[in-house]
Amino acid sequence: MVEARREFILNAVIVLALFAVPLWALMAGEPFIISLATRVAILALAAVGLNIALGLGGMVSFGHALYFGIGGYCAGILAHHAFSGTPVAFGLSGTNQMLVIWAVAMALSGLVAAVVGALSLRTSGIFFIMITLAFAQMGFFFTLSWPAYGGEDGLPIFVRNQFPGVNTMRPWELFLLAFGVLLVALVVFAMLRASRFGAALMAIRQNPDRAAAVGISPFGVKLTAFVISGMLTGLAGAMMADLSRFTSPAMMAWTMSGELIVIIILGGVGRLCAPVLGAAILVGFETLFGGWTEHWQLWLGLVLLGVVLFARGGVIGLIAGREGHG
Amino acid sequence: MSTLLKLEGVQVFYGASQALFGVDLDLAEGEVLALMGRNGMGKTTTIHTLCRMLPMRYGKVWFAGQDISGWPSHRAARLGIGLVPEGRRCFPNLSVTENLIAAARPGHWTLARVQDFFPRLAERRDQSARTLSGGEQQMLAIGRALMTNPRLLVLDEATEGLAPTIRREIWAAIGALKGEGYSILLVDKALSEIKPLADRCAILARGEVVWTGPPAALDAEVEARHLGV
């Protein structure tokens, strides 16, 4: 109980800090820091998605960059056609409305996750990791050789897409939008974990045979979780494309899948706010050490090594105690 | 009374070695059947087979009028077979409440009713299952099976390795469920506790049912031949 309260306080501090830092940057006139915080929020959103599959369901997907990239290409392609006034396909026009783009991104990444999940969830362990990686690599090489949308050069978004009531060209307003979506995703994650579905998912992670013996269908529950997970990561991809105003095959690269896993391990697998803290650490290292040496990942690697060896519950587990959920 | 569960000529192999040599068993709606036998005679194998956790080579399992021989275990559980496995086997890292709601299916038994039935589970609701005592874990395992709202409760060695006072509590709980008309399949070695509870006994020896009858008919000779150590 003490640990649960401590984790609750820690979560509140993490979320408030993500809000306070860009607020301070707004007052101090540092738009670059606001954009960094927006990047943290969007990466965290992508990792919240992965945290459902990996943290609650124990499904080590090494291919979540696929959904991140699908989301990114949805934003890029729809905006591209809206900008040029040409139809996407079958006479359907593009759009620069984020709400529409998000819906398309989530639907499409959910659909792909359903197919990938249906095939890969028949395996487990290292085979599951490799199959999810293989699907993501297929997506990566497909976009690489897709000249209509820039191929390996990627696809720029000339004018940021729009959201009702928000001026998305202002860094602070775009941050608020990303932060709001992240909060909603965190609430969804918390509700999912507290629900019968979440309990069943965690039970399957601990012992699928035992779970089946009390009437839980391991395949069905895991597939559902995998689809929800892919949808959230896809949404994050669409938002990331809008933040950087650029979509490229790099969004689907295996290093992206790895980054999402690193974010969750740093924060603490299965913990509610692990994605936020992990993304903040990642972006922080990238910014602090990246300006100093291009080998900044060496330092991140050392931190990751420390976490894996000495703090199996991630940084959140280190502070709030290992007891808690999952 | 209609037949709820029926096993017909069930043969099960572990690799090349045969464990069940044609088990025939039936259980009527509302009946308490005790499955007995020495260690290694196939009691747990029989239970895992009827819960569809083990593949059969020959034979059929019928439950609630359906042939469930080829079903996966989660479908058998949803049809109403509620297993309380040997050694309790809760989900150790889930809280007591999470253990219970993970199994929940609509029906009479809800979280509140299970917590009423086992007040200890209400006291320990936020503790993770691995921190519970053996007796509390057993209550949790029974509670978890009840949450599936089963038509048949299958208890595999429900009181094994528990302190006498806890054993009495568990047996009282099973007695209360019998009083409510539940169909129960018991596997246990505790004869003195089974006898007042069971309507009928079946004895397994070397993978076959060798004796069935009311507990009163279990005389010293049968006990010595099939159950004595």
TrEMBL record, chain A:
The entry's keywords: Cell membrane, Membrane, Transmembrane, Transmembrane helix
Pfam families: BPD_transp_2
InterPro entries xref list: ABC_transp_permease, LivM-like
Listed name of the protein: Branched-chain amino acid ABC transporter permease
Membrane-related topology note: Multi-pass membrane protein
Subcellular location: Cell membrane
Main location: membrane
Organism: Rhabdonatronobacter sediminivivens
GO annotations of cellular component type: plasma membrane
GO MF term set: branched-chain amino acid transmembrane transporter activity
Record field: transmembrane: 7-26, 32-53, 65-83, 99-119, 126-149, 174-192, 213-240, 297-320
From TrEMBL, chain B:
One Pfam short name: ABC_tran
InterPro entries, A to Z: AAA+_ATPase, ABC_transporter-like_ATP-bd, ABC_transporter-like_CS, BCAA_Transport_ATP-bd_LivF, P-loop_NTPase
Protein name, UniProt field: ABC transporter ATP-binding protein
Protein keywords: Amino-acid transport, ATP-binding, Nucleotide-binding, Transport
Coiled-coil stretches noted in the UniProt entry, renumbered to this chain: none
PANTHER family, per the entry: ABC TRANSPORTER ATP-BINDING PROTEIN (PTHR43820:SF2), HIGH-AFFINITY BRANCHED-CHAIN AMINO ACID TRANSPORT ATP-BINDING PROTEIN LIVF (PTHR43820)
Keyword Lipid metabolism set for record: no
GO BP annotations listed: L-amino acid transport
Membership in a protein family: Belongs to the ABC transporter superfamily.
